[in-house]
Amino acid sequence: MNDIYKLQLGLTGEFDCSYLPDRQEQLLVVHPQAQMNSDTYQQLLPRGFRRGGEDAYRPHCTNCNACQSIRIAVSEFVPTKSQRRILSKNKDVELRTRSTPSPDYFPLYARYIAHRHASGSMYPPKEETLASFTQCSWLDRVFIEGYLDGKLVSVAVCDSVSDALSAVYTFFEPSLDKRSLGQFNILQQIKLAKQQHKKYLYLGYQIDECDAMNYKKNYGPNERFIEEQWIKFKK
Fold first, then answer.
1. Which residue from 161, 125, 142, 133 is spatially nearest to 53, judged by alpha carbons?
2. Is the pTM of this model over 0.85?
3. CA distance 41 to 55
4. Radius of gyration of the chain (CA)
5. Which domains does the chain have, with CATH numbers?
6. Which segments of the chain have a pLDDT < 70?
C-alpha cells in the first residue's frame, strides 16, 4: 500500500465556483506524476478526495467549506417510502453491469446534456468530457446500465476500490423524467455496493446551499466529511 503522505499535492488558482454564485473555487490536486493506483485512491476517498479524469482532487477554498464529501454506510441504509416508490416504478428496467464503457453511451449522454444542462459548462456535449467520467488508467470502474424494452435508458458510472464504490456520474433518457432515474440509479449503486460487500458508497459532495447538489442528504443515514472528520447524519 502506498504512503499517501508522500504524495505531492498542488493547489490550483481560484476560478468561478461551479455551484455557488459570486464565490471562487480552488482545488487541492494530487500531482499528475504521482503513481496513482486503487490502493492510493482508497486512502484518499475518506480524506475527501474525488476523481476527475486521471486526477484526484478535493475542494480547498478560502473562507468556504460548503462542499462536504458524503458517503453511505451501505449496511445501515434503509430506503424511504418515496425511494421505495421509485424502485417499484422502475421494476421493469433491466439492469446490467460491465467493467468497460460502451460506444452506445455517447448518444444517450448527448441527449441528457442537451435537455438537462444546456445552460451549463458541459454544453455542448463532447466525447472527451464523457471520457473524463468513464476512463481512468489506474482505477477499476463499474457501469450500471438500465434498459427499457431493450433500449439503453440510463448509465451510472462508479469507481471501485476494495471497500467502496464511488459514484462518478449518471446520465439517462431525458424523456423519462417521471421515472426519477437519477434517484433510481443511486439506489442501485447502494444495492450493488452491498452485494459486493463494500462498506461505503461515496456520493461526491453535498452542498446544502445549492439546489442542484443538496439531494444527496436524502439518502441516509449518511456521513459527511467536515473539518477533517466524518460526522453521521440521520435522515
1. 133
2. yes
3. 10
4. 17
5. 71-206 (3.40.630.30)
6. 1-3, 235
